[in-house]
Write a structure and sequence with these properties.
The structure is a single chain. The protein is α/β, with parallel strands linked by helices. It is built from 16 helices and 14 strands. An eight-stranded mixed β-sheet has the order 3-4-2-1-5-6-7-8, sandwiched between helices. The protein has a six-stranded parallel β-sheet with strand order 11-10-9-12-13-14, sandwiched between helices. Helix 1 crosses helix 15 and helix 7 packs across helix 10. 46% of the residues are buried.
Amino acid sequence: MRVVHVMPFFEPATQFGGPVAQLPLLLPHVARRGVEISVVTTNAGCRGRVATGRWIRRDGYRVWYAAVAALAERPPFWCPSMRRPLRRAIARADAVHACLSFTHSVLQSAWTARQFGKPYIYTPRGCLSPAHLAIKPRLKQAWSAVWERRIVCRAAALHALTQEEIADVESFCGKRVPAYQIPNAVEPFPVTDGMASDMTNKLAGFEMPAGRMILTLCSLQPIKRLDLLLQAVRRVAVSKPDVWLAIGGRDLGSRAEWETLASTLGLSERVLWLGHLDADQKRAALNRASLFALTSDAEGMPNAALEALSAGVPCVLTRGCRLPEVEAEGAGRVVGPDPEAIATGLHELLGDEDRLRSARQRARRLAAQRFSPEAVADAVVRMYADLLERPTLSLAEAGPEP
């Protein structure tokens, strides 16, 4: 079985968030299950750090980085140089897996797959949620009218992270689509005897206060709604003066606004701005945390929350994070998107040590059983096998290209 994965950016362009972390984690497990994988991508976000114009072997799969112009390192990541390697890879493939909506790579891969009569799978990764569609809506409406809606409707299958995403896609294209719900994966959290003592070294340069730490990890942009979390922490601090908040993540324009809000709320001494954390620093921060919180308006499926679960850190999440399993399995709370509800969730866990201890165990178990790379890879391979058993429409039946 040969599958071509297509996305607009890839490792080491970690500034683009979750999708860049997911594929390098998952693909080796899929390859070990007998799938021959080729990744066609661009060097957006990593120009000068990767070789372009040739295949590069990775852990059981290969990657082609097409060179993108500096001005195109932003949506829709226009990259005409992707066309030739994409055609060659798809010509010999059984199926195509296209990731991330409103991108030139998805447009090219869908067009090329149809040209060669190959089925393609469409993975939006949260991009079709109402909250994400409300960002630059006119551009997305125009792109959808010309391309995206037809691309989605003509896909052989949808790979959705959640049931909510299936509903988003069906609302977007106006019809039911063949869908597979397969979540993101998370690696087991490494636990070593020296982890606690090593934490200080990993986070050198930060003066870590005593007391209980609430950790959040996210890019600092409006959709992450740290304003809600800051207001909730202020409420919690009234009765729990030992609680403080650590914020890790790249600033995408909102940090100054939220620092001002923290100061206005009297939280300057209770908030530690960590900036971007590398993998070791992130593990150290998770090891130090009493709770993890994420208060986004919308997520596909947040890797940071999965990493917290794997580390045994109970979570308080807003419903927009789309992880109802956290509450259903007793690994934390899922609450409404308002400061009072978030504060209540934090209070309930921090105020009950027995419940917090149980939530830690349940968090690890949930991550291991539901989100392990092995379980997710098995589901992906079953999706591919099922897809290839279906008849594929001919180009004449499918209609004109977008």
